[in-house]
Design goal:
This protein is α+β, with helices and mostly antiparallel strands and 499 residues long. It is built from 2 helices and 31 strands. The radius of gyration is 36 Å and the shape is flat.
Length: 499
Amino acid sequence: MTGKVPSFSPGSTVSSALPGYIALCLALQVHRLESAQFTVTGPDHPITASLGGEAILPCHLSPRMSAENMEVRWFRSQFSLAVHLYRDGQDQYGEQMPEYRERTELLRDHITNGSVSLRIRDIRPSDNGQYKCFFQSGVSYEDALLELHVAGLGSAPAISVEGHQDGGIRVVCRSAGWYPQPEAQWRDLQGQLLPSASEKISPEANGLFQTEIATVITEESNQKVSCCVRNPRLNQERESEISIAELFFPRVNPWMVALGVILSLLAVLIGLASYCFWRQHRAKETLRSELESEKEWRRALLNAGWEKARQYAVDVTLDPDTANPWLILSEDRKRVRLGDTRQDLPNNPERFDSCVSVLGAEGFAGGRRYWEVEVGDKTGWDLGVCRESVSRKGTVTATPGNGYWVVWLRDGGYKALTSTPTPFPVSVRPSRVGIFLDYEAGEVSFYNVTDRSHLFTFTGTFSGKLRPYFCPGLSAGGTKAAPLIICPVPAQAGGNLGP
């Protein structure tokens, strides 16, 4: 059988193949778009920021592309808790961690080129550590890891002389307010290191560190020394010097030693001769005197604390947007009482709906603040402070773990609402209660203004804004009418808002 090769013209073949070629190119282009990928790149070295300052954490996409319609999320160890979140073309603060609220800003000047940076203001020790910047477009996502190093210089070293030791003079150097842990050392006049007699680095309540280092200076060694405390992260240091005159060094004289031994023996003999008589005659009287002195000392100390607290008096008012619908507030927002009927008020996010409480309008994120509340003869009330970020809906468990530092009166008993309520004794029933907030020290103290006595103090660590907390409860005889009243503090007691 013979075959014949079909004939064709070049023009007709190209015309018939052209639609298939175009379809193939379009399919390849669509596949390329579907499989498009990107990477996220951050700095290849840790970023260092000073306490109280700000940090810029940069990230960018490779290849360059716009991130305007992407989700950009910054987070720490948990993806769901955001340091900052950008989605749908705007910042989303609903999922932000409370400790970063009002402190972050996404810099979007170059977002169309795939480059964004996160600014964190008011840098704190807790900001130290790793961060991730996460980009997502459709089903594609990538992230990059960054490291933020927080650093802070502490106070200038304070040197004190603390007596004789091992034939020399013991000097101690102290400095506070460092982050991270500092390095401390003694140097002589030539810059040579001196051995330390003791060294201690301990954390402070605010997350910073304090150091204490001691050395013994002998007469044979250099009498002028310096204490140097260094921040290894910043490679910066603070230094103080001290010079000790020769006459302060102990000298051993045989005659003085003999005289000292003789005088010591005489003192021992005289003491033994009179001890027995004195012990019987004075034991009871001395014990009684010591107990009375201790009581007076403690009373004076507590009174001094209350009087000092009143120096930080502030004007506190009630926030009607947070008040439970059963509460009645006065027009000047200084009084609150439990009403007989539930008011028809908007159920805004700030309002307590189950807990019959109201917050103060003022928020405190630092410093010391004091205010007083008239409780009269009411048989039930709650007073204290809480975080501004606490949930206002549903049942409230008022404990420090949930952001509440509160004391209450119930059934004639006074308790501090710790994780397990802590009763505290009250010798004189308070008709007015003083509340003192020391933010940096992490303390909330309560005072009985009636007899100027201390009631209870919470200790811990605060973050974010704190606001005064009020729950009027019941009055004498179980009635609802008597209010809690925010009272003015005498002008001479207030006016000092510094730390």
